[in-house]
Design goal:
Layout lengths: L1 H10 L10 E4 L6 E2 L5 E4 L7 H6 L7 E2 L4 E4 L6 E9 L5 E5 L6 E7 L5 E7 L15 E6 L7 E8 L4 E8 L1 H36 L2 H20 L15 H6 L1 H20 L1 H4 L1 H23 L4 H28 L5 H22 L7 H4 L1 H66 L4 H21 L7 E2 L2 E8 L7 E8 L2 E9 L3 H18 L6 H15 L7 E9 L4 E7 L4 E4 L4 E4 L17 E4 L5 E5 L16 H10 L5 H16 L8 E7 L1
């Protein structure tokens, strides 16, 4: 009788039960994918209800699904899924929809009377309280133990994302171990990222290399994005203001796009891309612009992921391939350390390919294949860490070698200075003895001293680039007028790659003592040339050298250092107590004022740097304080105000005219009175 009743009931069921393939579940330890047992329908009218299906199921043409995973492109239409299930176990069965990208889930079960009852009302955009289990994905209890022999289920799903759902059926005994392994994998991945994050944060604090900051930003982004993509959306719990769980999901492309900027910045800095290929540099920059100001802003201002997801995925694959090929190109150009970056991207792309093949059913769905993207990212990050470790070791070795060379050079210079001092002391002693014993030959001795000073003047002139008239694109005019035969002013001009460096120094006092100090300055500057450090670092090193080595000399001096970047058309300067210099434009003058105290006073002094534009037609007018600290017979000072006014009135003239005009105006002001200090002028015209 029971068999007859069941037969009659099945005949009344308004579905194609005889045509549908039934999933038979017969083991409590098994976890079965149901993709191949699914039938699906896209509701293009957006109006189909479960009542419509129950009244006239033959009207709707459900298509058979052939793969373990259900995949569908992003669509604004709801998708209906149908499957038949028979439970031969004594345990309750649970349906897992293993995706957090499904915004709305409505699950219906066919009742024995031919009607449907709603058994689940879930989805990412619905309250957490609707869930049956506290899991990251959706578990729905669908069939009691020894329930009706065969049941038919309908699931209506909606989302703006491309749909990729692993649907599985099992019992709690099979579901929990599966879930635990997934949790362990994601926890291990995040643990690796946290260790790498704090390790590189420590290196950044220690080394102060911005490359490590870019890498830290990339790790932080990966720690949020990769779990989100693998259905562990921790970031959705960050809520502030109008930003909530819905915002994180709807604006995924917007906030996701910024991570690519960290990838690009790391690539630029690590492989020095601008040096090896400007075209590739600007190409990658344009891609980042499209990410943020194209896809990102479109998504932020209301364009749905439905319309952006496919072009965004294609563009991302193009970006990944570009970074991959760029690193290989730089490696072929001779930058061997780029191989770490190349292999890192190799593993990342292999992981992504394996993941895509898994969700599309081309290779088996197991824990390794399913987690291949995370594994690829983890190996990529590990390779990048090796790259940074290699960079750190290289920097340490280079620093040790430079320090060793500097120490050796400093010792040699110190030995030379000591020998010169001893020789000078001996000469002074002999000369004094001669003066004392031969007072009657004073005139001859004065002539001899004059000759020695003239010889010293020639030596001092030899170390100054007085005859330099042009360097690269720049015209150079210089004037050096010591108050005595030798003076306490010093200047130097030289080129380092794309940088032209100008240095002016003014030792306290004048005459022989100041001239000797300038020789010490020149000696130490020659040593520091090899390090190619910035203007502020140069002043810092020079100050510490004088405080350490020549503390007993009480040698104080001002110093001005400026770097002209030929490519970028900028000037970067740092000034240690030096008077304000002039950057002359066509219609204005910028004063380059002091950025720190004079050298030789205190150790560990700080000197800041200032960068300005230096474009075609601009001029630089550098000088020492002897140019304006001059007094005429009436006790009137020439003054910095009069000097600035003179430069302002002649800013449109050529640089040689401005230099000569300044000196002739000073001579007229002094009215044949001797100058009271050394004067140095360096003019540069672009």
């Amino acid at each position: 009788m029971l068999k007859f009743f069941l037969l009659i009931q099945f005949l009344l069921i308004p579905i194609f039960a005889s045509e549908n393939e039934v999933l038979v579940f017969d083991s409590i330890h098994e976890l079965k994918p149901i993709g191949k047992y699914l039938y699906f329908l896209e509701d293009t009218s957006k109006n189909i209800t479960i009542e419509d299906i129950s009244k006239n199921s033959t009207k709707y043409n459900f298509n058979k699904h052939e793969k373990d995973f259900f995949n569908h492109v992003a669509t604004e239409n709801p998708i209906w899924l149908r499957f038949d299930l028979e439970n031969k176990t004594d345990s309750e069965l649970i349906l897992e929809l293993g995706s957090t990208f499904i915004w709305y889930i409505d699950c219906y079960k066919l009742k024995s009377n031919g009607n449907f009852t709603k058994i689940a009302n879930l989805g990412t955009m619905r309250p957490e309280s609707e869930r049956f289990y506290n899991t990251n994905v959706f578990w729905i209890p669908i069939m009691k133990e020894k329930d009706f022999p065969k049941q038919t289920y309908y699931i209506k799903i909606s989302s703006d994302y491309p749909i990729e759902i692993p649907l599985r059926i099992g019992t709690l005994k099979s579901m929990i171990p599966h879930k635990r392994i997934q949790d362990y994998i994601i926890a291990g991945f995040i643990g690796i990222l946290l260790i790498t994050f704090f390790y590189n944060l420590f290196l950044f604090i220690y080394i102060r290399d911005i490359l490590y900051l870019y890498y830290i930003g990339y790790i932080f982004w990966a720690a949020l994005m990769v779990p989100f993509m693998n259905h562990y959306p921790f970031i959705e719990n960050l809520e502030f203001g109008s930003i909530d769980k819905k915002w994180w999901h709807e604006k995924f492309i917007f906030w996701h796009s910024f991570g690519y900027a960290f990838i690009a910045l790391f690539l630029f800095k690590y492989v020095d891309l601008y040096k090896y290929s400007k075209k590739l540099f600007y190409y990658i920059c344009s891609m980042i612009f499209i990410y943020i100001f194209g896809f990102g802003l479109l998504n932020l201002f209301g364009v749905s992921i439905i319309y952006l997801s496919t072009p965004f995925q294609i563009f991302s694959m193009l970006f990944y391939s570009s970074c991959f090929l760029t690193s290989f190109y730089v490696y072929l150009r001779g930058y061997t350390r780029a191989i770490y970056y190349f292999f890192g991207w190799t593993f990342l792309m292999l992981g992504m390919i394996c993941f895509v093949l898994t969700i599309n059913g081309f290779i088996p769905d197991n824990y390794f294949n399913r987690s291949s993207m995370m594994i690829g990212v983890a190996i990529e990050i590990w390779m990048f860490s090796l790259a940074l470790g290699d960079r750190f070791n290289t920097m340490r070795i280079e620093k040790e070698e430079v320090t060793k060379k500097l120490l050796l050079k400093s010792q040699e210079n110190e030995k030379i200075i000591l020998e010169q001092n001893e020789l000078l002391e001996l000469q002074v002693k002999n000369r004094t003895s001669e003066l004392q014993s031969q007072f009657e030959k004073t005139e001859e001795l004065l002539i001899s001293i004059k000759k020695d000073l003239n010889f010293a003047k020639k030596i001092q002139a030899r170390v100054l680039p007085i005859n330099l008239r042009r360097l690269d694109k720049f015209k150079i005019v210089s004037r050096y007028e010591p108050m005595d035969e030798v003076g306490g002013d010093l200047f130097d001009i030289y080129k380092m790659d794309n940088i032209i460096r100008i240095i002016l120094a003014d030792a306290e006092g004048h005459g022989v003592q100041a001239a000797l100090v300038t020789m010490l300055i020149k000696s130490e500057l020659e040593t520091l040339k090899e390090t190619a450090i910035s203007p502020s670092n140069l002043l810092h090193e020079l100050n510490d050298l004088f405080i350490t080595k020549y503390v007993n000399l009480n040698a104080f001096f001002t110093c001005f250092v400026a770097d002209i970047d030929i490519i970028r058309e900028t000037i970067l300067f740092s000034s240690a107590g030096h008077p304000a210099q002039y950057l002359i434009h066509k219609d204005s003058i910028d004063e380059l004022k002091s950025t720190g105290r004079i050298l030789g006073v205190s150790k560990n002094a700080n000197f800041s740097e200032i960068e300005m534009k230096f474009e075609f037609g601009d001029k630089l007018f550098f000088f020492t304080d002897g140019l304006f600290e001059e007094f005429n017979q009436e006790g009137e000072e020439f003054g910095s105000e009069q000097l600035l006014e003179l430069a302002n009135n002649n800013k449109e003239q050529k640089i040689e005219f401005l230099v000569d005009k300044t000196l002739s105006t000073l001579d007229s002001f002094l009215r044949n009175r001797p100058k009271q200090d050394d004067i140095t002028i360096v003019g540069i015209e672009y």
